[in-house]
Amino acid sequence: MRVSIRVDIEYQITADQPILLTLEAAQTEGQVVVDSLLEIDHARLQRMAGEGGVGARVWAFVTGERFVLRYGATVDVARAEVDLNLLAADPMHGLPPEVLTYLRPSRYCQSDLFTEFVAVQFGHLAGGAKVAAILDWVAYGIAYVGGSSSSTTTAIDTFNAGQGVCRDFAHLVCSLARAAGIPARYVSVYGAEVNPPDFHAVVQVWLGGAWHLIDATRMSHADGLVIIGVGRDAGDVAFMEAEQPVQPVRIEVSVRRA
Q: Which helix (H) or strand (E) holds 161?
């Protein structure tokens, strides 16, 4: 599937402030960036590798107090849906070193607080079947409510509140999977099926020796997702970071099947 992406952002910023961005489509397994153009007014750009070597981060050294960004990309996605129930979990001692990180608790994914719940709720299952059950539990047990959470909301907050947005769904799935001994990482994406279009959050779980995309919000499917970056949680892949306060003026995201 070919996906077309357009992002227009305008912020009021402190004069001459560096801005760190994670919003370009990644050249990574399952997708090919056919063309891509990032333009930022009055800025010098400096790129570096993204978290876990997936995608890229961009420092924008902006002159002035206005941050104006335009980004467009065309991406070919060749990623098939998989039946989670057919996938086995890898033993901890057999995991690649870079995957072990995604078994551990993080700032927004306190997987250590869910160990007992996961054992009681999903202990009779194993591997991909356990992940599928976790996905169903979150999809049907947590209500998607826009504006119901904030940048400080954690997985345990979402669990207790019973509501959240895509970011919260992803944090909770990551936490439950990690508590079950299955590596899971937070994934920032563009989704062709997400309505209204926006930066979206899903999860990758490590099963059968590979990463597999899942979305507990049920808004998207693997063949319509364009990966931007990955991390332990949202703190690793925020689309924009700044040292000083910034004020949004306009954020427009368009994602469609080309």
A: helix 155-161
Q: Give the domain ranges of the chain.
A: 2-78+239-257, 84-236
Q: Which of 238, 240, 251 is nearest to 59 (CA)?
A: 240
Q: Does domain 84-236 have CATH number 3.10.620.30?
A: yes
- Please choose, from the candidates 230, 178, 207, 241, the residue with its C-alpha nearest in 3D space to the C-alpha of residue 87: 207
pLDDT in tens, 105-119: 999 999 999 999 999
Q: Is the dihedral of CA 78, 83, 86, 91 positive or negative?
A: positive
Kindly state the average pLDDT of the residues 7-29.
96
Hey, what CATH topology would domain 2-78+239-257 get?
Immunoglobulin-like (2.60.40)
Q: In terms of pTM, does the model score above 0.85?
A: yes
Q: What are 210's two structure tokens?
A: 């590979």
Q: Do residues 126 and 89 make contact, with C-beta atoms less than 8 angstroms apart?
A: yes
- Tell me the pLDDT tens digit for each residue of 38-68: 999 999 999 999 999 999 999 999 999 999 9
